[in-house]
Structures are given as structure tokens and as C-alpha cells.
Amino acid sequence: MAGNRYTGRLLTAGVTETINVPASDITPPVNQPLRVTAYPIVAGPGAPQTLDIQFTPSANVAGFPSGVKVDDSFQVGGAESLNFNTGFPLNTGLTLNVTGFPPTTGNYLIEVDSEVPNNFSFQSDARGVTDFTQAGFVGRSDLDDYYQIVVDQRPVEITLSGLKDDAKMELYQLQNGNPIFITSSDNTGNINEVIRDSLTGGTYLIRVTTEGKVTTDITNITDGGGASTPYNLSVTRNSGGDLGTQTNVERFLNTQISGHFYTIDPLEIQQATTNPILRKEFPPFSSSGTFTAQRYKNINNGAYFYATNAGDVASVQALQAWQLDDATAFQVYPINDLTRPANAIPVERFYNTILDGHFYSTNSADSAIARSIGFISEGTGFYALPAI
Prior knowledge:
This protein is mainly β.
């Protein structure tokens, strides 16, 4: 996929501006359908429309409508669009001559988009198991781009860069054909978006989108409307090891239901600390590892369960009483992960059949207390680094 956006101002009636679109903005690794959309945009938020835009394309491509004026709306403020489904050959650019139907003048935004068909759907653009870097475009004519990747259990780093405007990136896991939201990166403006996460083996979707995004480039997109930007997406699967910095996992006791709550989220820690029902205890271990634990909540009694391996995730998702509460609770090392450091400690998991809740222990004193109040040991649940 590829694409870009162009802006300009037609200040004099009848004057034509020429936009030279390079091959790098059109042609991805294989021929893809091409779409060009021209939008008249107002001089500022709330200003009136003044331009009836039209454009004439030209390219040395068989079957392309070179020299044919695109002017179908016949109205001030109407958008114009050209679709060429055959696609462009490699290393072939495009010229657009842009003007206003006399005597109209005004500002404009043109989006050039070249991508696989239906890449806005969950099933499109499957990239398999290899790392990749890909140019793309999202904007008013194309809100969403989806990329499908397959990973085994390992850390993955996904970076969205080269932005001219505001966009966000989301990560989903496909389960039985349905997308399950995992996490997102949503900065403001043209700041890079980065997702670093440890994933269980399976199929995942990366969504790049401008949905709900208002332009932060008011100098060029003067109407202050929807964002429009090219981007570069890179996906790197790491061989293993820690992901991110080491942070203590804080533990809180719910004094009403005798259950425990674990978190590394600063806001959750602040809220739990000031909650009279919750009592803060010492941190049992730190967040560091190759698997992202997911927190699930029992809708019947408020108990929590922390899925720390792919089997846990599959099992708890099959139970209707448990709902995903936090897809990125903290990092751990699954028991079969041989990349764990030598100083990683076993975390024993206990289950209470009356409370339908779990408890996690890293020392003999905690384990003894858990057994004395009816918790049953399920053995080592995962490995973690000691609290710092």
C-alpha cells in the first residue's frame, strides 16, 4: 500500500495548479488499485465553501483516462473522485492539473491512495509470520487500514512513523474470526505511535486509522476537519527476553470479599490506595517478562483471575462469568519459557473454591496463610523477577 495527501490554494479563477505525484506515493510492491479524491476545503473552521474543484489526470499507463477532466459533482463544495482498478506499473508516477470551475476559487485537499482491495476488512492484507515495513495512507477517503500478522509467543514491536497528521494504531487478536481488542497507541499530532507487547501464539490485526481524528495540521488542512496522513508501519518480532522496564506489581486486599487485586497502572494504584475497602500489601514481584498477563473479572462476585499463558487465556474466555478487565495487566515469564533470567522466581498459584478466586504467592509465609484459609495450590503459575 502507498499514498499521500496534497494541499493547495487556487487564488485566481481559471488558474491551474500542477501536482506531480511520484511513483513512491502510488505503487506498492505489486500493482494495486488507485484512488484519487479531491476535496474543496474552506479557509477556516465555519467559513463558507467557495470552490467547485475539478482535476485532469495524466499518466503513461495503458487504459488510464489521461486528459479526461474529473468533474462529476457540478457544485461548490462537492468532492471529486477517480478510481483506476487496474493499478499502476512499478516506477510510474502521475500528474494532476487542478483548477476551479470559473469563477470559483478556494483551498483544496487531494488524497492519493493505492492499496490492496478491501484492506479495511479484518481478512485483508495477510502478512504471515515475517517482519515487514510498509508505507500506507489513511484519511477522509480511507479511514482504516488493516494488516494481519501471525506470531508465535514472543515480544513484538509495532511502530507507526512518518505521520503528517494525527492517527492512531490498534492491536487486536483474532479469535474464532472475531477481533478482540488488545491495546492501542494514540498520541496527538504527528508523534510516532509505538506498541510493544508480548503476544500469545495466534493471528493478530493491526489497525491504522484516522477515525474520530481531527486534523492537527490546520496550516495546510484549513477547514479543521478530519485528519489525513501518509505513514510507515514496521513490525518486528523479537527473539525473546524482557519487554519494557521493570516495575513492581502492587497487591491490594479487598477486605469485603477477601480477594486480591494486582496492578502496575499508576491511576489504578492511586484509586486503590484511597479506597477504604482495599488494603495495600507488599509487592510480591515485578512486571518483567515475555508474556503479557491479562486480567479477567468475575461478573458475579467481583473476583479477579490473571491469565499468564495461552492456555489460561483460552480457558477463561470460554467461561461466560469472566470478562476481560485489562489486556495488559503486567509482564511475566510462562513456566515453559526457557529464556527467563536465572534470578526469576516461581510464583505459586492458589485457588479458593468458595470464593472462585485466585491468589499468587512468592514466599512460604504467604503460601501457608493461603492454605490455612481454604486455598488449594495449583503449583507454579508463572515466573517473575523479584520486586525491586
